[in-house]
Amino acid sequence: MKITQDEVRYVADLANLRLTDEEIVRMTHDLDEILTHMEKLNELDTSQVEPMAQVLYEAEETATLRQDQEKPTLSNRDALGCAPLGGGGYFKVPLVIER
Q1: Does residue 93 form part of some domain?
Q2: Three-class SS state of 38
Q3: Each residue of 65-95: pLDDT tens digit?
C-alpha cells in the first residue's frame, strides 16, 4: 500500500500537527511500511486460531462485571458545583485549539 505525502499532510492537519517537509517524508515512509506490514498480516488465515483472551467469562466465579444497580444521577447544579467556571448549565473551559 502506498500512502502519499498529501495524505500524511491531511492526517497531520486533522491532528493539528505542524510537520516539516523532512518529517513528512519520514512519516510517509514509516506509515507506508506499517500499512504494508498490516496487509501481510491480513493475508494470514486465522480461522482455526483460538482467541488468546476474553473480556467476559461465562462462569460466575470468573465474571468480570458487577451487577448493574440503578442510582440517582447528579443534578446539573451538583455536577457544576465543583467546577472552577460554569455558566448556562455547562462547564466552561479555556480555549485550547485555535485555527
Answers
A1: no
A2: helix
A3: 677 889 999 888 888 888 888 888 888 888 8
Adjacent-strand bridge partners of 2: none
Q: How many residues does the chain have?
A: 99
Give a yes or no: residue 35 inside a domain. Answer: yes
The 10s digit of each residue's pLDDT in 38-70 is: 999 999 999 998 877 666 556 566 566 677 889
Q: 23-44: string of b/e by CB count within 10 Å (b at 16+)?
A: eeeebbeeebeeeeeeeeeeee
Residue 14, domain member (yes or no): yes
> Do 15 and 7 touch, CB atoms closer than 8 A?
no
Domain CATH for 29: 1.10.20
DSSP letter string, 1-24? ----HHHHHHHHHHTT----HHHH
- How many Å is the Cα radius of gyration of the chain? 24
Instruction: Write out the residue range of the structural domain in which residue 38 sits.
Output: 5-42
